Predict the structure.
Amino acid sequence: MIWTICLLVQAALLYFILTHRSRSKSEPPLDKGLIPWLGHALEFGKDASKFLSRMKLKHGDIFTVRAAGRYVTVLLDPHSYDEAIKDSECLDFTRYAQVLMERIFNLRLPHHQPHKAKAMMTKHFMGMNLDALNSTVSRHLQALLKAEMPQNRKDWKEEGLFDFSYSLLFKAGYLTLFGGEQNNNSSDPSSVYEEYKKFDGLLTKMARGTLKPEEKRTAHSVQQRLWELLAPAGLTEDSGSSPWLHGYRRLLQEEGADEDTQRKAILMQLWATQGNVGPATFWLLGYLLTNPEALMAVKREFSQISQMETSETPLTDRLMNTPVFGSALEEALRLTAAPFITREVVKEKTLHMADGQEYLLRKGDRMCLFPFISPQMDPEIYHEPQKYKYNRFLNEDGSVKKHFYKGGRRLKYYTMPWGAGTNGCVGKQFAINTIRQFVYMVLTNYDLELCDPNAQMPEVNASRYGFGMLQPEGDLLVRYKLRNTH
Ligand code: HEM
């Protein structure tokens, strides 16, 4: 009896220690949830958008929630985002992707590596090398599309749009950056894609540590297989990989990363560079196909470009000035890009909100922005935010619209698919160029249509909020064939 009482007292004490945290007056509203330690983790993981919208209604634009032992302060006022994005003294620049990958792979990169790797990426993806990347990816896209649909095939081919977009863009991106040849079995892009899709499907569960035993085994073997497939990538200068990947490998080696760390880091880069473009293209094409007026407008803009086809300027350059396409893409991303932007609070910080309120952030907590809720889906900023309106980002005179308002004040951040500040996406321009080239090729050279003309866009897979581009639950069936131009 006495032992039972002792155990109960100990359990109660432990519960108290694990759950005790009270809000001081200067801190944001605190919501620990009912479950000790776990807090809101389950609801957060199941559908972060729904959960954070509920918390916003309850607490307002800033609040702290407990999730799996961590305290996360969520900020949802875009007028105050700079407070989190610009403060590198109190808030550590930690990429969410990196945090996840570290958790999934138990990956420990050398201390200096992330900064040097970033500088290297900026050089390769944003500088002079961008033109070379654009034309390489264009060449691969053309060849892959041709292989899908040979010139002599005249009938329709049916496919899920998500699979179609993801597989072709993944393979073209993989060939461009990681090298390897078609039909060379050690690094055949189709095998890499097949394995990668399985890995991607388990990603959210891996990151949250909620894999079932069977899934754990699959995840393990898929990672092994991917590591084998990626083993040659970037190793030698003639491995067919991009100069970026070769440089990245050298950097890892110079910093003393062992084989195991190297292969994990290369897989992380595969995820960072290939995980978003295919899904983004799916949403864009899906919205265009289900909104005929939008499709017509983009096709009209592209047809003006294709009429200049005989001119001296290469296609990649002619495709630069496409405001209608730009707006159509921006709008698709507004609706489906949902990354968390996170920071580690490394030094106690007073956060000054745009409305004049001040809040104290505790060292050791995490800070999280979720631009998907605001600005992107905020009805005060976007009328009927759930609706796809291809010309939302165009002014009446056809120029790019950059003025959006909340509370009567112009917003600096009105949509944030690429993140912002120091850890914003370095591949943004390359990604936009790739998507534009692909959509151009498909819409000018092929007839592409919905199998069911009344089909609607599929629902979103709610477990992926926070992981970058969303993915659909199911697919949208389309058919395509070579256009009869002659
Ligand atoms: C539609 C496509 C894409 C979207 C929506 C996207 C979005 C993002 C976002 C939101 C981040 C910041 C993540 C964070 O805060 O942790 C990011 C980071 C990054 N992206 Fe992209 N991205 C795309 C395509 C690409 C491509 C094609 C590349 C490279 C070829 C790329 C390379 C990177 C890298 C290297 C980072 C990390 C930057 C750093 O370490 O600071 N992305 N991307």
The radius of gyration is 24 Å. Residues 62 and 75 are 5 Å apart (CA to CA). The chain has 18 helices and 13 strands.
